[in-house]
Structure formats: C-alpha cells, structure tokens
Amino acid sequence: MPPVSEIILFASLLIAAGAVAGILAGLFGVGGGAILVPVFYQVYGLVGVDDAVRTHVAVGTSLAIIVPTSIRSFNAHRKRGAVDMKILKDWAIWLPLGTILASAIAAYISGAALRTIFAVLSLLIALRMFLNRESWRFGDQMPGGFLNAVAGAGIGLFSGLMGVGGGVLSNLWMTLWGRTVHQSVATSSGVGVLISIPGLIGYAWAGWGEAGLPPFSTGFINWITVLLVIPVTLMTAPVGVRLAHAMSRRQLEVGFGLFLVAVSARFFYSLL
C-alpha cells in the first residue's frame, strides 16, 4: 500500500482536476475529459500504475466521470433553451455506435497510440479555432442522411478514443454548418451524454481481466477516481455554464483553442 502522504496527494490532485473539469464542461460544452485524461495519466504515474494500461484507464475513467457531468451540463443549457434537440435525435444511434467501436479498438492498441490520437486531434481543432473565419462554412443547414450518420459515428469514434464527451468535435462540426458557437456548446453537452454512457460500458469490457490495473477497477474504469471526482464536477459545472453565456463568440473560440494547445503539448511531451 502506498504511503499516506502519496494517497493524500493522489486524492488532492484528483479533486482539483474535478473542479477544473466541471467548469470546462459548462464553459466549452465538453465533458471535461480533455483535462481529466492528461491529469489522470500524470496522477496514475505518480502512484505507480503500469504504463501498459495507464492511458487506457485515464481514458476509460474519464468517460465514466463524464456521464453525470454531461447530464448536469446538458440540463443547465436546456433550461436556457440553447440546445438543438433535433441534432441530438439525429445522432442518437450513430454517436453510441462510434463510441462502442472506439472501446473495441482501445482493447488492442497501445497507450502511446491513444496519446498520439489525443494530441493530434486536439492540435488540429485548436488551429481551426484560432484561424476561424465566418466564411469557413460547408453550408447553413446541418446535413442529413449518410453524411449525418458518418459525422455522428466519427465524432463518437474519435471522442471515445480521446476519452472526451464529444464537445471538442461536435463543436467544430456544428459551427462549420452555420451554428453559433453558443448553440454548439449547449448542444455538445447533450452529445456528451450519448457518448459517455456507452463509453463507460465499452471500456469496462475492453479492459476486463487486464494485468496491472489499479485497485477497485472494472476493466479500464477506476472507481476510486470516479467517486472522488464526480461530486466536484457536479458542483462546478453550472459555474462554467454561467461563464459561457457571459462571453463573446470569439472569446470562447480563443479560450477553447488555447486550452487544446496546452493539452496537445502535454501529450506530445509524454511521447518523447
């Protein structure tokens, strides 16, 4: 058993991460996973979690924590009338399907591969946020049919591999089709609900019986982390929602971009 000082440090870091993640969930329409995954990766390393499963546990546990955080954020945005429910209904099958595929892939790829996916996607999306122009649109109406299905499944797939609630990618997709950033943020909180629940189930299955898992884990879900972090994220998510509605479109874009650059840099550094 680790020394008491290490346990206290572990708990303190997780609680701090939960507070930041909750604010980000409301502010950017993400489930908080983009901050939780790199923080969990670092904290698990401090307490000696096996490198072979460390990234997987960080991603899977992040998705588990996103479940209540996304629900809380979604309800707060919906009360303000900012959520486009039609988009969520159109993606109700495709988002979970992509997330389940992600968990199946995660069962076979390395932690370094997961971190690379996370870093590259974060950087690309950050660049889009910094260089955004009003003219950069595919159209003024969200597509339906096959393209809509591919978009939903793709968002679920890559979000599941990153351990995020889908806000990162769905924000990008919706703004390219003429949605305002505020409406995209609000609707993305609902995307997080559709991704995180199948993600929790999938990562629990994907890591079942793996060696080197931390204590009290079901597959790649660590329940100690879940129990410590969820209460904090639930308390702080409404703070982020209030901040989001007080900021301009450009402020949200630049803030989101800076945040993603920092996350990407951290994971690229971990690959050295």
Number of strands: 2
Q: N-to-C terminal Cα separation, in Å?
A: 30 Å
The profile of the biggest β sheet is: 2 strands, antiparallel
Spatial strand sequence of the major β-sheet? 1-2
Q: What would you note in describing this structure?
A:
Its main location: membrane. It is found in: Cell membrane; Membrane. It is a multi-pass membrane protein. The chain crosses the membrane at residues 7-40, 52-71, 92-125, 145-173, 185-208, 220-240, 252-269. InterPro entries: TM_pro_TauE-like. The chain has 272 residues and is mostly helical. It has one domain. Helices cover 76% and strands 1% of the residues. The protein has eleven helices and two strands; from the N terminus they run H-H-H-H-H-H-H-H-H-E-E-H-H. It has a two-stranded antiparallel ribbon. Strand 1 (217-218) and strand 2 form a beta hairpin. Helix 1 runs parallel beside helix 10. The model has no long low-confidence stretch (mean pLDDT 84).
Keyphrases for this structure?
272 residues, two-stranded antiparallel ribbon, mainly alpha
Give the SSE map.
Blueprint: H1 4-28, H2 33-46, H3 51-79, H4 85-90, H5 94-106, H6 111-130, H7 145-162, H8 167-176, H9 181-206, E1 217-218, E2 221-222, H10 223-246, H11 249-270
Antiparallel strand pairs: 1-2
Helix pairs in contact: 1-2, 1-10, 2-3, 3-6, 3-9, 3-10, 5-7, 5-9, 6-11, 7-8, 8-9
